[in-house]
Design a protein that fits this description.
Structural class: alpha/beta
Largest sheet: 7 strands, mixed
Radius of gyration: 22 Å
Amino acid sequence: ETIRMSFTVDTNSVPDKEIEAGKQNFDSWLLTSAGRYYWEREACAIDEHLKCLPGPHVLSLGTGLSAGKAAALATNRDFPYLYVASSHERSYSSNKDNIKKVENHRICSVVLESLPFETDSMSSVLAIHSLEMCVRPDQALREIKRVLQPEGYVLFSGFNTISPNYWGISTWALRGSRYPNTIWHPRLSDWLRLLEFEVVASSMFAYAPGFIASRMPGVSEAIESAGDRWWPLLGSGYVLVARKTVLGRKLVGGRLTSLLAHGNVVLGSSSTSSNRQTRKTSDN
């Protein structure tokens, strides 16, 4: 079983240098001590939600490094068909630890606003800091919805702009470019609801500053535990999982079956509403 791909070009994209600067800065930051600590926490959060995501076709989106790291986590879940769609292929290829884990899967470089995959072809999508790396995140969301199968799941991760740690992240990871263009998670939730997604889970992570985590691991663990309990909305990043809903699917699959079993609905030979009849069962 294969997924046909037809590569397209987004003619409305911003100059390559501007986006590439943001991707390179972000991937370089992930290799620092603070970035590694951040990713350790993010990987734990992603891995926890991956347990509930369906296969077999899974698409990992992101920059070169983030897409590769997420793909490595997905590989550990034994998804039969894994597609790594990196928006910065050079950075991904340089990460040997991740590339060797996904070497048997398809790897490509894409434009997030115009994904080269068939409609309704993916069971799940991992969007790891991907909306923050494109010109039109709203269009990227529409593309994700298009490639997702009905009742498919998408996992997003991003920075939390109200976190006290975001100041340090923005100083180092976002310097010299307006990318990553951070999206606050309540705003992302609103966008998803407008596109008829159902938000099913979310979590925060990385409450301790990166410089503390690298020097005082014990203190950072205490801060993480306290953050989960006392200030859960102030984590450095978030993970959000949403499901692509289909109007009427729950009624047809569940409620309508129940009505038929109790004899409350009679279906005629035609599927049109004019040929459907409803009758009440008598107490006799």
